[in-house]
Amino acid sequence: MDVKMLVTIFVVNFSYITLNTIRFMLTMKGYRLIAPLVSMAEITIYVLGLSMVLNRLDEPINLIVYALGYAVGISVGIKIEDYLALGYIMVTAILPSSTEQLNLPEILREHGYGVTQSFGSGREGERMILEILSPRKNERSLYKLINEKEPRAFIISYEPKFISGGFWTKKVRKRNN
Predict the structure, then answer these.
(1) Domains of the chain and CATH, by start
(2) Which keywords belong to this entry (predicted)?
(3) pLDDT tens, 44-69?
(4) Would you say the pTM of this structure is higher than 0.70?
(5) Residues 71, 41, 171, CA angle at the centre, nearest 5°?
């Protein structure tokens, strides 16, 4: 068993899959320049790693180490993407209407979030509905702020694919250029 070869196979496939995961996230978030550049490095590493394993199929441990590098690479790629927190999120917070006196929309605006406020009816009466746009990097602090002010809030988040209009448009356009 060639330990140096096993380590090389692991590192090569780990690097490939980490880049693959990051490139996929960049593509989904619309980073049109950097995603193709990352993919060039990714495919070069992929071909190198695959050829190393295919040329040594007589030793099954090579394939196992290749698969291990794949699994660890996905995990690390996801952690890197979480750390980078690219893009924006849209959060809907549904609050009991009795929380109007908390002035949560103004508090959120003071913290730099884009907030649209409306009212609706729920099973137990009137509700305040807040639509909040935020950079993903601020996601956790947004949830914390909402929960501090109204622990009964029902919160849903998603990633918008297209943003146009409103005071956030200039910030979003700067990122895309």
Answers:
(1) 3-84 (no CATH), 88-160 (3.30.70.120)
(2) Cell membrane, Membrane, Transmembrane, Transmembrane helix
(3) 999 988 888 888 888 889 889 999 99
(4) no
(5) 90
